[in-house]
Amino acid sequence: MACNKKPFQMTDDEIKKEISVPGIHTTEKFDVASLFAIVTNILKPATIAADNVIRGTKQPHMEIKGERVIATSFIPPLCTLKELSYEMVCKDPSEETAYKTTKSILEKLKNYSWHVRAVLTLAAFTLDYGDFCRHLDQFHSSDQLTKSMGILKGIPALLTRPSIDYNHESAIVEVNKLIKDTLNVIDCIVTLEERCVKYNPKDVPALSIATDNISVYVFWAIITVVVCTTRMCCLIKDERKTQELSRFAEKINAIHVKLKLQIQLCNEEIEKIEAYWKLIRFLKEPLDIVEVLKVLLFASDNRQQVKIFHNELILEAVKTKKVLLFFSGMDVDNITEYVSILNPIYEKVTSNNEYKIVWIPIVEQWTIEMQKKFELLRSKMSWFVVQNFSSTSAIKYVKEQWHYKNEPIIVALNSQGTVEHYNAVHMIKIWGTSAFPLTHRRDEELRKREDWFGSLVIEFSADISTWIKEEKHIFFYGGKDSTWIKEFCKEATGLANDDVKGARISLFNVGKDSGIERRFWKLIDNFFLYKSHMVTEVGTVTKEIQKLLSYKNEKGWVVLCKGARLVFSGYGTTVLTVLKNFDEWKQCLNDSAFSFEVCLEKYYNEQLREDGLPCRDFDIPKIDGLLIPNCRKCPDCSEIMEMSIRFKCCHQNQHGFNLNCSHNNGHVTKVQLKEKVSPVSLVCGMTVTAACESHCQNKC
């Protein structure tokens, strides 16, 4: 039975199980802070008064430091306190009885939260103990009321003139100290509860750990108050049998040490949170770029001293300037690639002196190896470099507000310190120096450009620039099969030499130079990420990019441009068949107003219907921080592509291909998520794939 329980023989888990009483915390408002303030304001001077009596000293009234404020409207729960006081007094001095009493108190207070139960129990004890200490201190007063009240409190049993009986001295000292220690424990419990109200445990993980055993700590605080009450009753009644307190004192002290450490850990985390919130408030409406860099780079919570290279005062240099903050890790190959991309940008911004570039590597721990990497990378850069960027709040801000996820980002700030673009990396990668100004508005303009393909490939050859200016039809082609490439080159060259109505044709073999081919697919990958970030609808440009990505591992592929505009792309084998059969469809050009590209696409689509459209699938590189949409539509039939690892659509209904027209809303789509994918952070170095087999029921 519960009354036979001995708490010192029980584990924390066993105690938790025993004291877990079903019930809902009271919905009534209860000012526990004011009640605890009263308890503290009574016990601190009361225990001092008891100590003075024992030492035989009499000190004048003095203000107690840290006296707590009590709400003027506070009404104490006197009935509850009297009931609890009655529950504790005049009990047999035994561990089992103390346990039974504690269980009874917890049952009475089951509708209160744990910290309130502890405060109410201590308050009930304080009603009697505060009075006891005051009358102990003033018993020799000539005031008849004070003397009479002291007699009722049992003071004469403790005193022999002119001082306290030696036999009772150690008992009062022990109770007095244990009550002070218990007050400290409950103070810690109340402090943790206040922290839980103010802060989310998700933001302060130490809070969750600290509060996990609160019920056990409250149990030991209450049972300690119970045994102190029993000890005082034995003392006043002058009974030989008494309550042993030493084991309770050891337990309370151990809990106090643990709680102080947990509160310290919580405070350290809270300090970081407060610094982070302060940073958010400040950067919400910045004054100027200098102030922004000052709070980011030179924050008070930097773990190491920040160093700035190259030998120029950065805050002085950025006044009235726009700033590009380049955040990254310390991957040498990756950052070296970015340096090569940023070098022409640096030359441009240096010439007009409008922008400053600052590289800020984010490193968890600066080791000797990291230092070597840093020095190597720093030697490649002509712009500002920051070492030891270690402010916890600033790093958290960059990760959460500017979405840094281990992959490099470039945050563009204006001279007022306001963000003009949260990540201009893809703008710069795709458009280079023509991306300026690096703003979201400019970004939107670039995304809508119709000459995007020509802008990407113009750097590969001076001939391309000439052909674009002349508005020629340009075949770009490549693939894995060298035989196909030779055959296509032969057929396309013959077509170029033929007098084709409305077409002046030129050819460019993307695969003739492995460096150009790698650069080409890198640009297409980047442009896909640039265009499709959190966009699920397949616009014309996004559709063409997805097609291009699906050609990457084909035997052959073809892109046709009219000037800088991409007007057609297709599978190499099918395009080759169409070109070989040019005589069958050349009449299309002569008998109609259709352009060369329209006729080519018309017969290409007819050939696809005859051959059967291959599955459309493509991979994209995994990048930390890239947000992948929940779904993506197929560029051929507009069906939702199934998301697993790879983007893939096999158009099982061959009549549903959206080759020349769009479907209406009558289609049926089957979507199966093999792996739940919402906007997620992906691990660098792997391949994102998604799989989909959709069925389109409507015919074109």
TrEMBL record:
Residues 442-514, 520-651 form the Sieve element occlusion C-terminal domain. One of its GO terms (biological process) is phloem development. Transmembrane segments: none annotated. InterPro entries: SEO_C, SEO_N, SEOA. Residues 11-286 form the Sieve element occlusion N-terminal domain. This is Sieve element occlusion. It comes from Castanea mollissima (Chinese chestnut). The lineage of its organism: Eukaryota, Viridiplantae, Streptophyta, Embryophyta, Tracheophyta.
